[in-house]
Every structure is written in C-alpha cells, then in structure tokens.
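Tokens for YgjP-like metallopeptidase domain-containing protein. Go.
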Amino acid sequence: MAGGSVRLSLNWNSRAKRYSLRIAHGRTEPVLTIPRGGTLERARAFASRHANWLAHHLDRAPQAVAFEPGAILPFRGEDHRLHPAGTLRGLVKIGPGDADEPLPRILVPGDPARFERRVRDFLVAAARTDIEAAVARHTAVLGRSASRVTLRDTTSRWGSCSSRGALSFSWRLILAPPFVLDYLAAHEVAHLAEMNHGPRFWAHCESLCPRTAEARVWLKSNGSRLHAYGKA
C-alpha cells in the first residue's frame, strides 16, 4: 500500500469459496480469508488489488483506546476520564471532575500493573448489573423467563437468545447510552416469545422499549466505536 505496509491476519478457511478482506470489530488487524486450495502468493496479489479499499476503510476505523491513566471512554453514554485513585486498596468508583478537568472520573485503585484489568472488571460488573435489571424488567412485562444471562466480549452481535431461553450480551453495552442497553435487553427478551424478526417480534420489542428505532440508529452510527476501547 502507498505510504506503508499493513499487517494482515490470515484466516485459512476450507469452507470459503473465494478470497476476501474484512475489518472485524475488535480486531487490530484486517482479516484476509484464504479459501480451500488457496496460496499465499494469490492472497498477496488479492490484497494488493484491494489496497485502496483497505486504506479507505482503515482510515475510517475508530482508533483504539487503551484502558490506561488519562484515557477518555464513555460510561453509560457519558465521557469519563480514567484516573488512578492514588490508593492501593478499595473499589473502582466514579468521582467528579474539577475546575481544570470537568469530565467525571473513573477512579482506579491498586497496583498500576493491574490498572487495565481493574477497569475492565469494573465495566463488566456494571454491565451485568444494568443488563440483568433490564432483562428482569422486560421479562416481567412479557410474562416470560430467561434460563440464564451471560456476558461476553462479542464482535459480531450485541446479544443473542438461544432456543432454551439463554440470553447473552456484550458487556460493551455499558459504554452506550442507557436507552441503547435497554433496547438490546428488550430485543433479546422479545425473542423469548418470537424466535424471528417478524412483525410480532418487533411489536413486542417496541412495546418493551419505545425508543427501539432511535437505539437501532444509534448502534448503526456508533456501535463500531465501542469495540475500540481497551484494544490498544
């Protein structure tokens, strides 16, 4: 590519029918899929032919933001600055900003070497609290029950509902505004009644979450950005 090289992650896929390039959420490297019978030489040629496409999409990709002191990340939709608490013990908590820095802070105590882990654990715990509360609220209204609720760091979907009623969500929803998290909870709970995306499903979803349309627009415009946090 003009101006430098790009490191690619190779995916040898015996089920693929052709070479393909994609920039996956949460990945720092573009993925080049090589089909059955493919070769590295042909893969390099394919990547070279699509260099302009790759450069364009890499320029548009959100920049990775590490969980490190001074970084700014959204928490429940509002920007917060990560800040050492200055103590070795205690819980991660939210603190106010000051005259020099009006942004609220996420205050992180403990060993600096564990700063990133403590931030991630705090976000996952907060996501669990909010998601479980939203699921409980929506299942009560719908008259259904979930067999369990789990959190993962998924890249292809924000939530899922199994045929056995197990709900799964991305913990990164805690970074989004609360109405977006509420919509995803309503979406998966609605699947407990309708395992499809037909009119009856959407009627359930919109009844549970009146801001469904607004949340879907927000996710389409901003969802990819949520995968950039904690990835540097």
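The longest helix spans residues 115-142.
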